[in-house]
Amino acid sequence: MNEKLTASGERDGSRLFNIAAVRSKIRFFWRRVLLLRATPHQVALGFAIGVFSAFTPFLGVQTILAFALAFVLRVSMPAALLGTFVGNPLSWPAIWSGSYFAGALLLGQDPAYAADHFTDTANALGATLSAPSPETLNTAVDYLSPIVEPMIVGGLLVGLIAAVFSYYPTRRAVRVFQRHRRLR
């Protein structure tokens, strides 16, 4: 392990995550994409669909959306699943802020609205979770609506851009990998 031990023999928690471990995980998932048995187009489009669905703000529905789109378009479902891993706790802040900002600009809204009303929104959500009732739920929906709409619109745009930029390198990598594997 790369972690340092303190004088008392405990691990030093100064690192948020281990860079080598993150690289290893990325290599592992990329290798899984390359090993899928399908045409380069099917793998790349499946992966791009997963990337697209990772940019939607609906946690828990992203995988279902990726599978549904992969099924309809008849592309690689495992690649779509692997593409959804682009959305993870490390990337969500960047994805959500970029989606919100792009959506707010597209809808002609002030992107600073969410930051200005963050405390009110958090309080409304906290009240709904601590004492669920129709009134607190309505209040939470009222506070969330101006934030969720730009996130959906922006997520579609940013997700589409990310999907396009993930399709071509993935297709090329799969094509090269499959060609090298056939030549062995």
UniProtKB/TrEMBL annotation:
The UniProt transmembrane annotation reads 61-83, 90-108, 151-170
- Residue intervals of the DUF2062 domain: 26-182
Query: Which UniProt keywords are present, listed alphabetically?
Result: Membrane, Transmembrane, Transmembrane helix
Pfam families associated with the record: DUF2062
**Record carries keyword Cell wall biogenesis/degradation:** no
The keyword Membrane is assigned to this record: yes
PANTHER family, per this entry? SLL0298 PROTEIN (PTHR40547)
UniProt name for this protein: DUF2062 domain-containing protein
